[in-house]
Fold this sequence. Notes:
The complex is a heterodimer of chains A (about 120) and B (about 500). By secondary structure, chain A is mainly α. Chain A has one domain: Helix Hairpins (Orthogonal Bundle), CATH 1.10.287. Chain A is built from four helices and no strands. In chain A, helix 1 packs antiparallel against helix 2. The longest helix of chain A has about 30 residues. Chain A is elongated. By secondary structure, chain B is mainly α. Chain B is about 75% helix and about 5% strand. Chain B is built from 21 helices and four strands. In chain B, strand 1 and strand 2 form a beta hairpin. In chain B, helix 3 runs antiparallel to helix 17 and helix 16 crosses helix 20. At the A-B interface, helix 1, helix 2, helix 3 and helix 4 of A face helix 5, helix 6, helix 9 and helix 21 of B.
Amino acid sequence: MVTGSFAASIAVLVFAIGTGGLILKNNLIMKLLSLNIVNTSSILFFIAVSYRQGVQAPIIGPGKELYADPLPQALVLTAIVINFGVLALSLIFAISIVRRYHTLDVKKIQREARREFGSGVED
Amino acid sequence: MIGFSLAIGGYLTFGTLILILRRGEYYLSLVAWAFGGAGLTSLILRFIQQGAFVWHVGGRGGIEMRCDLPALLFGGLVLSLNLATLLYMGKKEEGTFYALYNYLLATAFSLELSHDLFNIYVSIELLSLISILLIGYGKKTYQIWAGLKYLILSSLSMSLYLLGVALVYRISGTLSIGALKSEELVIGKGLKIGLALMVVGLAVKGGIFFFSMWLPEAHASSETVVSALLSGMAIKGGIFGILRVAEIADLGALLIVLGGATGIFGALYALMAKTPKKILSFHTMSQMSYILIGFGSSSALGILGASLHLVFHGLFKGLLFLSAGASGAGRRSLYSLEGDIPGSAKLGLVVGSLSIVALPPFDAFFSKSLCMEGISSLGSKATLLAIGLGTVTSFVKLNWYMLRTGTSYSFFKGKSIVLLSLLVLGSAAFLPPLLETAPLHLLGSEHLAESLITFFLGTALFFFLKEKLKKTSLWQFPFSLGNSVCFFFGGLLFVALFLLYMP
């Protein structure tokens, strides 16, 4: 039986894995996937802390007295849609960067971008 | 609420019409501005009648919205910057740009009136997604990279904000800030961690040093209109969110510490920066200190000063960015400027600079003096004076090099600069009804002496350091993507420990 606090600890663990990837990986796509893992873990955390044992689905019917709170699901759906938008936009940005600089290495991209921006200005 | 629907409905409808019709973008945007103006006027009229008021979207128990003085001031800022940037860009952008621009303004309106933790999350996410699209709109790869860095940091920060919302909801069972305030919650460890997560999440959007390390690159590399809107309005979204969250529990001490840090580091980096747009971007970070420290002081005068600085900063920073853009030298090194700069750009630069260094009768003098009057601790006062000194020195540097170039007398893009200059000069005229007395006592007080002494000391400091500033550069490593994420988590640890263990 999965309890709320167990699921919440899993969410924190997944969050840490995602953060590790975001800091340590040098490949842009890996960074974006790590970011998505972080986002997903926050959604799992939201569901986990809102979990109540022994309640039923919030649909009106005979013999139902204890209902689950329907609000967290509604909020989490919105957050999932936003995260989808973020992932799609970031991948599009990644595609246009790779087309121009021909690399996924974040350090190289950073260097190229500084060169293109500054055109010789050290700031 | 009719005012709310008029403003948001106007911006959304005309933004969508621009996408469908593909013509008349400029005029449709002007009509959207008029709708925004009508909406704000209706909100102001109701505010004058009955003071701050609250309503719920979707009936009782729906999303809580609140119209109060900071919200109305923010609305005024959005409308002023809307008109100025619209006049600046005229008809020369593509249709989609105008559509995104109107959507951005709609989300700003939605944010300023939100009084619900989750609605703040949705509004800020939308605000940053649209800003990111606008940053990358110039289609230059460095702009897209700056946008992507912002996107990664902002999405990470909003995940943490969501964790914070989950904790607060678990403990209190509500998301409405009004209900959270009236419940008189016991601020236990769980709630403190929730608050820390939310504040840190919003700090990334709000231009606070160590959190918003994406900001200098994004603001300096985007197109002029976008820089002005981001610096003047979009980052105020994050600050505004922090102020709403601070209504739940007393976060005064934390705001003062964050304000001091962002002010000092922002000013230091601005001193060493070598291009006009970078100087302005770092000063966006440093000026947030007045707002945070003013609100952190929890005194009526400090809060009024901070609310006013939130608006005045938007006006003069918008003016400075538009002038830097019109000068054509925004991304060039100050030390190798050549060619003529339009007279209107120089005018805007001087007016904006005199305002940011807080000389009367320009507007920031009044907001900064009110902040100083509101704070009682000597440490905060000394920090703000040091930040003021750094601001004067870096703006004397900016003007010294930019005004020495030749002047061309084309009034290209002059309309928007003149409009914003007049607003920067005239906006202090709104003070008397807010203060319930004339603000003239500030002119005759020690604040005048304070600002004059800071100005002369800062100018002297510039001439003393002039050659050194040319050669010195500060570390750029904090601004790379991986390090920004590390700084962000370091900041989170600091904020959480501060809230848990400081009395």
